[in-house]
């Protein structure tokens, strides 16, 4: 775990990695709707416990959590005190890392909020 | 002083309008409405507690001297009170309320009642398992203690079926059937209302709901399955001569119609014009002559050519259909 965190520290947060958590949330959200629509249309009822959906949710949460941990590691890069609002590489990195971390937190909660009704309601009406 | 008491009266009147036992989620006679009331009270108590907590914090924040907390402590307060606690509270509320939102299971043995929303009345068809459907309109009777499956649709535009004391509302959409499974627990006479704006007389589109003990309901339904026993001969002649049967079906007299409300047991209903007027001879006669006076935008044509005596004779005939 420690080695993994050390490796995470070496990764560079960019605008591309910033969009990983919200994109995962968006894909999971779309998947939830499709899952319900296809399940109800094809078999006319709800699976007792939609295993594939639960696995998909766990995978989405792991991806978001990993993005959050990497971003958290990088936001702790040692250096001058805040505010980090200079046009330098290190301030840019800190800004992107912190934003990614906040987005990961939001996306993590959002995926749970989306998954709960799908798992608990289980009805096509 | 007078202005103040008027303002208080107006505000109180708004709240008092909710104090009734025949059309209120807060006075439930069905299991689902009881759940909704429970959730409402839980949410209300939670909201009041949170609002009180926020007010206390604001008071503290305004009174605290500047610089009494450092940046780090301030950020920690933002993280906990602005992020973590609201998330956990919302998660808890969602987990608590989701089981209440689960639709009630239905079984094939349940009585099915098909209800179509029309401008501005309700087409009702009881479909007891294994028996032919029984047509009715503008009044719904259900047994207590048994689940009943409503199959809801719209005949012309989108309506919404809402019996506040029984369950939540459900849209009635043309070309689509929505299912609503309910269970009434307390016998009595209640009221439902269209809850989706559907035209000029939307507010005048209501219906009576009568929850009956199962044995009494079964006897009533058996009675409803019988054809009408028309009495008044003069009224029957007027009904035929004026072409009423073109839109209104009366089992045993003419063929069922898809246009207007079925009148087979019209006289046994308690209200007229979709829950708007008491079922009296004078009201029925006046409605036949000028339905648009009671319901603007109604599709039924006026019959001003009928004399008072003729309208009364027709009303007497219709009220005799029990």
UniProtKB/TrEMBL annotation, chain A:
Keyword annotations from UniProtKB, A to Z: Membrane, Transmembrane, Transmembrane helix
Keyword Membrane appears in the UniProt entry: yes
Residues that span the membrane, as ranges: 15-36, 48-75, 95-121
Identification of the protein by name: Heme/copper-type cytochrome/quinol oxidase subunit 2
Species of the source: Sphingomonas yabuuchiae
Phylogenetic lineage: Bacteria, Pseudomonadati, Pseudomonadota, Alphaproteobacteria, Sphingomonadales
UniProtKB/TrEMBL annotation, chain B:
Cytochrome oxidase subunit II copper A binding domain residues: 108-223
Protein name stated in the entry: Cytochrome aa3 subunit 2
Transmembrane segments: 39-57, 77-98
GO MF terms, alphabetically ordered: copper ion binding; cytochrome-c oxidase activity; heme binding; oxidoreductase activity
Any one Gene Ontology BP term: ATP synthesis coupled electron transport
Encoding gene, per UniProt annotation: coxB
Record bears the keyword Methyltransferase: no
One Pfam assignment: Cytochrom_C
Protein species of origin: Sphingomonas yabuuchiae
Keywords linked to the UniProt accession: Copper, Electron transport, Heme, Iron, Membrane, Metal-binding, Respiratory chain, Transmembrane, Transmembrane helix, Transport
């Amino acid at each position: 775990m420690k080695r993994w965190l050390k490796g995470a520290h070496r990764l560079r947060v960019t605008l591309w990695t910033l969009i990983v958590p919200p994109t995962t949330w968006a894909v999971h959200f779309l998947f939830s709707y499709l899952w319900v629509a296809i399940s109800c249309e094809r078999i006319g009822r709800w699976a007792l416990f939609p295993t594939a959906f639960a696995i998909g949710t766990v995978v989405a949460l792991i991806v978001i959590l990993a993005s959050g941990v990497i971003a958290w590691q990088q936001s702790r890069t040692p250096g001058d005190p805040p505010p980090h609002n200079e046009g330098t590489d290190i301030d840019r990195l800190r800004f992107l890392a912190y934003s990614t971390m906040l987005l990961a937190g939001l996306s993590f909660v959002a995926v749970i909020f989306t998954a709960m009704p799908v798992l608990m309601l289980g009805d096509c009406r | 002083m007078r202005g103040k008491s008027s303002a208080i009266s107006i505000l109180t009147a708004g709240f008092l309008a909710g104090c009734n036992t025949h059309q209120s989620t807060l006075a439930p006679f069905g299991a689902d409405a009881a759940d909704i009331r429970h959730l409402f009270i839980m949410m209300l108590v939670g909201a009041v507690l949170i609002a009180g907590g926020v007010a206390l914090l604001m008071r503290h924040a305004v009174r605290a001297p500047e610089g009494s907390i450092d940046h780090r402590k301030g950020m920690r307060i933002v993280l906990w009170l602005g992020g973590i606690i609201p998330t956990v509270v919302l998660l808890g509320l969602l987990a608590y309320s989701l089981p209440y939102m689960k639709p009630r299971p239905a079984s094939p043995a349940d009585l099915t009642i098909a209800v179509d929303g029309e401008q501005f009345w309700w087409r009702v068809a009881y479909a007891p398992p294994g028996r032919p459907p029984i047509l009715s309109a503008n009044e719904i009777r259900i047994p207590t203690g048994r689940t009943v499956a409503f199959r809801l649709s719209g005949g012309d535009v989108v309506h919404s079926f809402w019996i506040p004391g029984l369950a939540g509302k459900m849209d009635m959409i043309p070309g689509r059937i929505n299912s609503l499974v309910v269970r009434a627990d307390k016998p009595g006479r209640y009221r439902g209302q269209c809850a989706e704006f559907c035209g000029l007389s939307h507010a005048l589109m209501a219906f009576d709901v009568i929850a009956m003990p199962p044995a009494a309901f079964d006897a009533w339904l058996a009675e409803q399955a019988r054809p009408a026993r028309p009495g008044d001969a003069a009224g029957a002649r007027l009904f035929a001569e004026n072409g009423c049967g073109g839109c209104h079906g009366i089992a045993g007299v003419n063929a069922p119609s898809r246009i207007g409300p079925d009148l087979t047991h019209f006289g046994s209903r308690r209200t007229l014009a979709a829950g708007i007027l008491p079922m009296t001879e004078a009201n029925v006669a006046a409605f036949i002559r000028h339905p648009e006076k009671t319901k603007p935008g109604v599709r039924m044509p006026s019959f001003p050519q009928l004399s008072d005596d003729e309208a009364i004779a027709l009303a007497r005939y219709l009220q005799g259909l029990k």
